[in-house]
């Protein structure tokens, strides 16, 4: 049919653009059928996929048709076997399918859907015109089927990935909640053990200190898992109030100093001593603690960690600088992704710290800027809006 040879390249190109869009599985099925109908100037079509050795009608644009029904096996099996487009005129099938003539159909096109040399389904297009296709036109239909198959497999893989991620997140959230109660009990007994051994045998007390540190780390990891869940569900609550920025930063540095007593942390400020900010104190403290702890983790014991506070345009500026192992250039754009860890960072942790910090900073209308060079250190700039007093 000449209709397929003239503007076929343009038609298939438009179909590809349609398939490349961010479509979910149902939208992809619908788009594949609609594009096939447009391609051959037909009326409607349907999509059948082979699922567990059965032909299942996944989508149909046929008037009055329902989806997810078992398709007719004979036609589909023939297309599966030959892996070639088949064109049938209704006059040839009147005895077996009188309903087609009643609906005004004159031709039926069965297009194989092939992925990696394997037929995964059949695209059927019904036309009220006689379609007398030759080998060239059938090859064009086969080409369209291959492109449509790629779109379907892409959507199926995306759907499977999305379901797997949801299952993972649900498991992590449930596990984190289950960890909370026993960790609270263990932490209480560890604290009691620590107080009982203080002033006694130095080795026993050292073990108690190590035990407490490990429990704190487990508690911190569990807290991260719980917060990652609340961020995704939009349930993380914020309590904004006026506070002194340097006081928050001093407390965060003090907490890190306790866990890394060998580190030298130097804070210098060019801000007014009473410079305030409107924030959620606990969550902003978590941002500072996260950044300072990263600097402590990934820099040599002898190197200083410098923290400076200043003003920059209409923002308050906090810069944390270390001389540590640095971050590869290719990783800088990914460090705020959940569960992402840099290739050269082999320390403990789940890679959630900066993801959580960025979400918290976004809520404060703040911004991260990070510069880093391998084996030369990292500089993290945190910008926060100034609090304008009435």
The strands making up the biggest β-sheet line up spatially as 3-2-1-6-5-4
From the N-terminal CA to the C-terminal CA, the straight-line distance is: 77 Å
Q: How helical, in percent, are the residues? A: 40-55%
Number of helices: 10
Estimate nothing, just give the exact number of structural domains: 3
Q: Provide the gyration radius in Å.
A: 32 Å
Contiguous low-pLDDT stretches (5 residues minimum) are 65-71
Strand content: 15-25%
CATH class of the largest domain: Alpha Beta
At CATH's second level, what is the architecture of the largest domain? 2-Layer Sandwich
Provide the descriptors you would attach to this structure in a database record.
3 domains, single chain, 47% helix, 13 strands, 6-stranded antiparallel beta sheet, 5-stranded mixed beta sheet, alpha+beta, Beta-Lactamase
Describe the structure.
- With 390 residues, this protein is an alpha+beta fold.
- The chain has ten helices and 13 strands.
- The strands form three sheets. A six-stranded antiparallel β-sheet has the order 3-2-1-6-5-4, with helices on both faces. A five-stranded mixed β-sheet has the order 8-10-11-13-12, with helices on one face. The protein has a two-stranded antiparallel ribbon with strand order 7-9.
- Helix 8 crosses helix 9 and helix 9 runs antiparallel to helix 10.
- The radius of gyration is 32 Å and the shape is elongated.
